[in-house]
Amino acid sequence: MTGSARIAANVDREDRLLAGLTARQLVILATAALVAWVLAALARAVLPLPAALGLGWAVLVVGLALSLGRRDGMSLDRLLLAAIRQRRSPRRMVPAP
Known about the structure:
This protein is mainly alpha-helical.
């Protein structure tokens, strides 16, 4: 048999699980929603309802930006991790005082 096999061009692309979102995006959104809910519930004990809801919405907006945002073809959560790694890395690359 001398047939040719077709290979898909998007083999490096992540799988879409729900509503066009990847598993990593869904985990970030679920975590942001849980943290927002807990923060709003805790803040409700000491703050009025609109202020507590504002705190929860702020956390949700940050979670949405991290999971759905992109910069230069890179997702914002990976970009944030790269920035944290760079900030924590040593400033000198040679073993000199």
